[in-house]
Design goal:
The chain folds into two domains: 2-84 and 263-275, 2-Layer Sandwich (Nucleotidyltransferase, domain 5), CATH 3.30.420; 122-258, ATPase, nucleotide binding domain (Nucleotidyltransferase, domain 5, 2-Layer Sandwich), CATH 3.30.420.40. The protein is built from ten helices and eleven strands. The strands form four sheets. The protein has a five-stranded mixed sheet, with helices on one face. Strands 1-4 form a two-stranded parallel ribbon. A two-stranded antiparallel ribbon has the order 2-3. The chain is of the alpha/beta class. 41% of the residues lie in helices and 16% in strands. The protein is globular, with a radius of gyration of 20 Å.
């Protein structure tokens, strides 16, 4: 990845005239825990090899420009805060449902950074685990509702019933099943797909309703690859969340899709580089 950046970033900088200005800073969104003050990576949750890597210093030394490094969900949320679905929000909570599940909280339009290592890591909160028979078991939200988790479950032998539309969509090759196929089958009225999406939505809503009850954002913006399913996922999330939030916030918040969706992280990283 570093080699790719060393090849690619100079080519982008050379194109600055096309955009009517001069490149003045670099913004990066990174998927993991990092020191906000220094831009040093503490831990990559999804991709190994980045532990204790000084990403901000490396960018500045490699490209001779000031750099800003933020958690990727914070960057995505900042895009929505500045130019997207949270542009009119006072308090915004942004969450991406993709390979993992992230969260970023903006109180009075300022990123909440906790102890300097980020905050509002929604995907790493615990919810009831409906995938096991034992009563009372819990699991991380990310292990149940992220894109990778959903597809791993769908591809497990025997999980999808033979009468499901999903079998036709993947031509019988369950190892090829995707979240997009799950949404398509649900859109066709497939009972299994609709029930699976409702289970995903319910688990996600349990975590989200706790966060809404605790911090009372007026807008919740949801993005990431799985959120591309649209209202077939967002509507049950809204319903299950509304059933669980405390009365003090019921009706005072909106759950909306992101404007930038898959482009949110680079857009937000650029805006953070501009503003910091």
């Amino acid at each position: 990845m570093q080699d790719w950046l060393l090849r690619t970033v100079p080519r982008l900088i050379e194109r600055e005239a096309e955009f009517g200005g001069k490149v003045q800073a670099i913004g990066a969104g990174f998927g993991g825990v990092l020191e906000s003050r220094t831009g040093r990576i503490r831990l990559s949750v999804q991709v190994p090899g980045w532990q204790e890597f000084p990403l901000r210093d490396w960018l500045e030394q490699s490209f001779h420009l000031p750099a800003v490094v933020a958690n990727d969900t914070v960057a995505g949320g900042y895009a929505e805060l500045c130019r997207g679905s949270g542009a009119a929000a006072r308090h915004l909570f942004y969450s991406n449902i993709g390979s993992g599940i992230g969260g970023a909280l903006f109180l009075n339009r300022v990123p909440y950074d906790g102890l300097g290592l980020g905050g509002a890591y929604l995907g790493h909160t615990y919810v009831p685990d409906w995938t096991v028979a034992a009563a009372g078991r819990e699991n991380k939200l990310e292990n149940l509702c992220s894109g990778w988790s959903i597809e791993r479950r769908l591809r497990a032998p025997g999980y999808v019933p033979p009468e499901s539309e999903l079998k036709a969509l993947c031509a019988g090759q369950v190892t090829a099943l995707t979240c997009a196929m799950l949404g398509e089958a649900a859109g066709r009225g497939d009972a299994f797909a609709m029930a699976e999406i409702d289970r995903i939505a319910r688990s996600y809503a349990i975590a989200l309703s706790n966060l809404i009850t605790l911090v009372s954002p007026d807008v919740v913006a949801i993005g990431g690859g799985v959120a591309n399913l649209g209202d077939i996922l967002l509507d049950p999330i809204r319903r299950h969340t509304d059933e669980r939030v405390f009365v003090s916030v019921r009706g005072a918040y909106r759950i909306v899709p992101c404007v930038f969706m898959d482009a949110a992280v680079p857009v937000g990283a650029a805006l953070l580089a501009r503003d910091r």
